[in-house]
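tool_call predict_complex ligand=magnesium ion
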Amino acid sequence: MDAAQAVLKISDMPFPAVDEQQGTVEGAGPAPRADNRDTVGEPFVEDPRMTCRDVNVYYGEKHAIRDVSIDIAHNEVLAMIGPSGCGKSTFLRCLNRMNDTVDTCRVSGRILLDGLDIYGRLVDVVPLRARVGMVFQKPNPFPKSIYDNIAYGPRIHGLAESRSELDGIVENSLKKAGLWQEVHDRLDQPGTGLSGGQQQRLCIARAIAVQPEVILMDEPCSALDPIATATVEDLIAELREQYTIVIVTHNMQQAARVSRRTAYFHLGALIEVGPTDRIFTNPRHRLTEDYITGRFG
Amino acid sequence: MSFLVVPCLLLLLASVAFVQGKRRALAVAAGERLHSRPWYHGMLVALWCLIPGLLIYLLWVFFADSILTRLVLQELPREMLARGAAQKTLLVNDLHNLVAGHVAARDIDPVLQQAADHYRALAATGRMFMAFLMLGTAVLSAALVYFRISPDLRSRNHVEQIIRVGLLLCSTVAVLTTIGIVLSVLFESIRFFRQVPLAEFLFGLKWSPQMAMRADQVASSGSFGAVPVLAGTFMISAIALAVAVPVGLMSAIYLSEYAAPGVRTWAKPAMEILAGVPTVVYGFFAALVVAPCIRDVGTMAGLDVSSESALAAGLVMGIMIIPFVSSLSDDVINAVPQSLRDGSYGLGATRSETIIHVVLPAALPGIVGGILLAASRAIGETMIVVMAAGLSARLTANPLEAVTTVTVQIVTLLVGDQEFDSPKTLAAFALGLLLFVVTLLLNVVALYVVRRYREEYE
Ligand SMILES: Nc1ncnc2c1ncn2[C@@H]1O[C@H](COP(=O)(O)OP(=O)(O)OP(=O)(O)O)[C@@H](O)[C@H]1O
Ligand SMILES: [Mg+2]
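tool_result ok
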């Protein structure tokens, strides 16, 4: 219980850098690998881009996320792993308030983007979602032309003054998503006519086109073959230079390849956060270890 | 009555066959593995009992009368038959009346009475014969299958095949009926076009089907230009669509995108009730409430409005077809995957932006299909127009005047006693054909659009 209280106190602090301290707390306990449900590892960083404190999510009566506190640093790739149904998607969707579209969903706690509470009463979700973009598990291009798919966001946000500027944004986004080579001569054809991997990159390009600061990806490769997956992973590696990326994945090799930090969720609780290589080589929590060694999940 | 006893017996027999077949399958199995479950064996025996019996019964029902009539007529005196085809039909009619026990208005020819009695006797024997034949065949064919039951008999496959054939027959009935209707309308129309040239019918600007009955009568010679009638139909349908499309579409969008689930569960059926109101009720609503209203408003505005107007009929018809648009649109809007909406919201689009730019374009072909369906409904509507739009076939673009439609003209042409070979009556069939072609075209377009829509976002 001591450990639990310590963690609670830590999560109450505004922006603590408590990595070491957390380690000591765990180290002081009787077992080197804790079995309780409090976050172990290093959930907090200095100068975070997003800060989440005591986030709880309910779907009606169902408590889907329990007391999650975590920071997301600038220009990092944070991977979220965990067994199916543990709340990864739910938590991800909290970060740009996509859960608002679910009637039964209720969110409490604080989530800050650059110090601004995104659930604050005066916050408008439209610019928020423009700053925190999202790529979904299944590629979901609009049944429009490739060009219109990319131009959709810039148009509704008025990002382009002229047609040529819009052309520029479209070309740029497609180039960043590594799709330009394949589609530059058929921009007027429907986006739904592309292959699965191309569609997913189209969706990433579409998200990039509104110049977000954070990109949330919910299992972006689960519908793709290994080659398309590799393309998307390369893309993530490139995007990391400019964007903050949070990616949910079931593929642990993928998490190991693309991310700098990894967060492990279990039954709605955030169990462990730490540098990816450390999580995969030396997990501190028994649940994390069980999961990554394949004992369940 | 005894008419129904025989099929009932057959059914009874079939159920006995089912039980026996099942029992035998179990007995034959004796620990061995059956190819099909006993239920299928029983079913196979029952079907083989039922189907041959039913076939014989149907043959009797369809052909007994003509065979018996021919037999009886052969025995009538020669001179009675030699009076020509028309007389013969009359004779057969009388005969049937006598057989059925109706009292004929005329004096009954004793010869004919005798023939009728003969007919009845023949029919009774025939029925007995048929019943025995039927039950005998049923028992025989059931027995044949019954003794073939063995663990290896592929009863399941046979039963499936019989079911398939049965389903095929049912759908054939629907198709054949359609073809029959079309053909009958087509043949009558061809008779019409022998008397009135096709070009005059399609392009003529004057519709007044009243014709002189006799040569010495003073009357108009009748002109059959379908244009004014068709124009009336299109005008009223256009008004109806102008009402139904915006209202229906908007309410569909509200119901599927904005309304709380609770509201939706009662609001949608409530709207669909509109389609269930009998059109006659709409008709007097149009004639007694809407039309006078329009006339009063028109008079106040200094307009000359007739008490029966295209506008009144069109408005009410528009209300009637709202559910066609709203219900179908609601379905297709709901069919647009949530992932598309999420994609749009995820880019920071508002709800209305998402609806206008993503949901509606994705659902558009389906919506168009719904609208076309509503349009063909409007084109075929009769009652409201009869009651509220009048009968005068005037070629006008003014919705405040009385007009008439294709369906209304068909009704007025055919109501009452008519000669069935005057162009006036035959014109009804030509109009029917025209209407059929127009709605068919609309439906083809609707089907095409709906089919394309399926490929849209998969
Ligand atoms: N719209 C909803 N209404 C009610 N419960 C929901 C809803 N969405 C998710 N849940 C529940 O919340 C819990 C977390 O779901 P979530 O989708 O976040 O899991 P996940 O970790 O993303 O799983 P997966 O790896 O299978 O995608 C689950 O138990 C799920 O049943
Ligand atoms: Mg998920």
